[in-house]
Write a structure and sequence with these properties.
binds ligand FVH, 8-stranded mixed β-sheet, alpha/beta, 289 residues
């Protein structure tokens, strides 16, 4: 028996398996394209001939493949028989609904199910400050906690609702990609003004805690529904976005990102929210859901 099996050896799965091996755990691996298991076998991993063999090899199995469709395809009838009494940790990115479906499938086949999200890139796995969110069966968490802690010092159990970890993941990814789109547009501005984009990246890292405070204040305002007495009104933010659009036109840059953001804030202006906090834009977004 191994201590843990890892199914899916893409960029992320490779690192998960390697990190567990390096921590001295006994690891069994399986991947659709078998050649990806070879570097891990050289480091001491056992290579299973099938998914069900991998699941049978350990009390805990971690799955990390492209998406839930791939995961559903992998978990065939033979795998369904193998999971009885095992803990299954699904680290494939998916929606809360997919996590709930995964939990039902596991319950139906007698497995303890944990759904999780890795809030890191492969090179960040194994660090004390790396975050993995998991939710679902407390029993499965008890069995997998020590292993997951090896992968991410910032491991958090978000409760027994199977969809909770995915909801956290989707919400944080929404912020990440929104921010990255803004950063890529910022890169265009830097290029137009002969500023190194690497310098912009460094500057953004330095101001991240202050920016994080703004996000925290917005979270509190939205949670309480209190949008009065703004430090930065929705109108002033809209004006800034209009300026970014103007700069893009002046410099012959793409206006796609600032025009999109400004158009959303303009809806806030039209809804007479200009004098409220910028986070009052949530009212517009809720209304157009
Ligand atoms: N890479 C990252 O930075 C992110 C960080 C946050 C979390 N994600 C999620 O992790 C999942 C896997 O991502 P990945 O980066 O490892 O993805 P790939 O390198 O493309 O590897 C994909 C693996 O999935 C296997 N696979 C795909 N389809 C099937 C299938 N139908 N049947 C069996 N296996 C399948 C693929 O196998 P192969 O192509 O090597 O045979 C790889 O093992 C993902 O949810 C991210 O959102 C990573």
């Amino acid at each position: 028996m191994s201590e843990v099996s890892v199914i899916g050896l893409g960029e992320m799965g490779q690192v998960l398996a390697r990190t567990l091996l390096e921590s001295g755990r006994g690891v069994t691996v399986w991947n659709r394209t078998g050649s990806k298991a070879e570097p891990l076998a050289r480091r001491g991993a056992k290579v299973a001939a099938s998914v069900s063999e991998a699941i049978r090899a350990s009390p805990v199995t971690i799955i990390c493949v492209t998406d839930y469709e791939a995961a559903r395809g992998i978990l065939d009838e033979e795998a369904a028989r193998a999971v009885r009494g095992k803990a299954l940790v699904q680290l494939t990115t998916g929606t809360p609904e997919e996590a709930r479906e995964g939990a039902s499938w596991a319950r139906e086949h007698g497995a303890d199910y944990l759904d999780g999200a890795i809030a890191a890139t492969p090179s960040q796995v194994g660090r004390a400050d790396t975050a993995i969110f998991v939710s679902g069966s407390a029993e499965a968490f008890g069995r997998a906690e020590g292993l997951l802690q090896v992968l991410a010092g910032g491991l958090s159990f978000m409760g027994e609702a199977p969809g909770a970890a995915s909801a956290w993941d989707m919400a944080m990814l929404s912020h990440l990609f929104g921010g990255l789109l803004g950063f890529y547009h910022g890169a265009l501005i830097c290029e137009a003004e002969n500023i190194g984009v690497d310098e912009l990246g460094l500057a953004m890292e330095a101001v991240a805690p202050v920016m994080g405070e703004i996000v925290r204040h917005d979270g509190e305002a939205i949670h309480k529904g209190d949008f009065q007495n703004p430090e930065a009104s929705l109108e002033i933010c809209w004006r800034s976005l209009e300026l970014i659009s103007k700069q893009a036109r002046e410099s012959g840059l793409s206006t796609e990102f600032p025009a999109f953001a400004a158009s959303l804030f303009k809806k806030g202006m039209d809804a007479r929210l200009g004098g409220e906090k910028a986070s009052a834009l949530i009212k517009v977004l809720r209304a157009s859901a």
